[in-house]
Amino acid sequence: MPSLDVPPDGGWGWMVVLSTFLVHVIALGAVKSLGVFYAEFREVFNESAGNTSFISSVFVATILMCSPIASALSNLTSCRAVAMAGSVISAVGLGASFIAQNIVHLIITTGLITGFGMSLMYSPSLAMIGKYFHKRHATANGIAVSGTGVSMFVLSPLFQFLIDEFRWNGALLIFAGMTLNGCVFGALLRPLHLKDAGKDKETEDEKAADSSKTCKAIVPFCQKVLEMFDVTLLKSRPFLVYSLSLFLLMLGNSIIYVHLVAHAQALGVEKTQAAFLPSVMGIVEAVVRPLNGWLSDRVPVRKLYYYMAGCVGLGICNIAVPHSHTYAALVACMVFYGISSGTFYPLIAVLVRKYSGVSRISGGLGWAFVFQGAAFLLGQPIAGWLYDATGNYDMSFYAAATFIFVSVVILLLLVPRKGRRWALESGVPAPDVPRDECDGVVGLQARQLPAHTVDVTTEGQNNPVFQREM
């Protein structure tokens, strides 16, 4: 295992980026393309919109909420071994879905088993990028998460084609074979040890031990559990604030991926054209995500503000969808939706790293994904129940926009407070100056001036030489 003082910001790290990109194509692409199966499941099993939504919501929630387990297993073994095991488990779950006779069967096989397997692929791959990159973290992460956009462009029409040719269960069986490629993707996750991160980890383990004395007296293995799952991160106020905001953001963002295709079909759009709408979003995201990751490392704007701008755009797009009554208008909404989504998505892992630290990024991502998973578990059924109550999807999209705007308001708690009077100065910043270490742009440092430095002096003008020259 290579041992380095600092992240290499390149080298084999680019192969890790490729691996994570391909994991996003398979795992996260399935999440966002599952809306094609949603309409088919409703028709085949004759279930309500709310009950049918539980298949995709449990699937996504399991992927995200099992991330702490994936992080703990990665700490015990390696990210490589965990990702490869997840690929096999995902294929088993999808294969077992072939003989499903009801919605409950699909919730267990596709939702729980396949979701757990893809969780073992997803979280460790993102954590490895945080270990290989520091200054270029947003750029690398933007390239990796753009795999979701590529998969939406490819998988949505592919799933519709497979359903038309082999029915829904045949399509799931073929997708099971595709997920086995995750064994190859996981093999690219070469382990890396950072010396400084190890020192930080020792300090954090000591803090965790101090905070768990009561638990140790009751349960002998409590300390080990706390260390494995990094529970002490939940005591961090900035991390909790960001995670709560992320929960509300994903609560709103989760609705469109399941109900977009059904909403378009309800407007009279043909099935194949409706299935192409997520692909339009995917094409835009595939281009915008790496571009925004690269820009956020270079423009003189805090990554938090960059992230918030994307969230606001996403909320506006959700309001616009119910007012789009033609296919062309829906396509335009998907273009702007992809731009907004591609603005904040590359920065999720970057901000988690900022508020948890590089040595705890596995645990930070795990807990952040728990909040996301809870949002996906609730968001899609809520939208389905709103449809059952109103007979259309308009209220679902309005509710999504509300959740997203509230998430932006919560993020205002993380905006650094400004001082009173500041002067430019080179050198090391004063300790009371707000500093965003995760931002790739290094700005001019500042410190607060004492009152006596403001007084103007003319003592030098009394020099005789100066007076003769005048």
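the 2nd protein, sequnce then structure:
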Amino acid sequence: MSLSDESQPVSCAELPMPPVGVGTSIQLPPVGIGTFQLKEEKTVYDILDVALSIGIRLIDTAQCYNNEHLISKALKCLLPKYSLNRCDVKIVSKLHPKFHGRIKSHVAIDNTVSLFDGYVDVMLIHWPGVTKIKI
């Protein structure tokens, strides 16, 4: 299949892009799926089903999207469908601004981590500085 053939879906495996190195220990796929505004369980499931079927292996979410639990639930069903393990899919999430700060962030991050089999691959600070907390 040619990348210029608009009539056929392109598998991520066919894209001419290698994984991106982050530091020395993690490789991120160059293409992922964002989940902002995905709120319905069936929609999350269907979108992740298609994404995994075409080779997407990076999922971007955030605590403030209020869908991490839906993504986790969908992955528990979908990973076995595609003979994948949790380690085959990279999860990027973001700390909600209301949890910025040393103390509140620990609990919030632990909650996210617990949804995704004990780890997320990348955890970002969403909208840093918006709460004006001194570090």
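DSSP finds three helices and six strands in the chain. Residues 1-5 have pLDDT under 50 and may be disordered.
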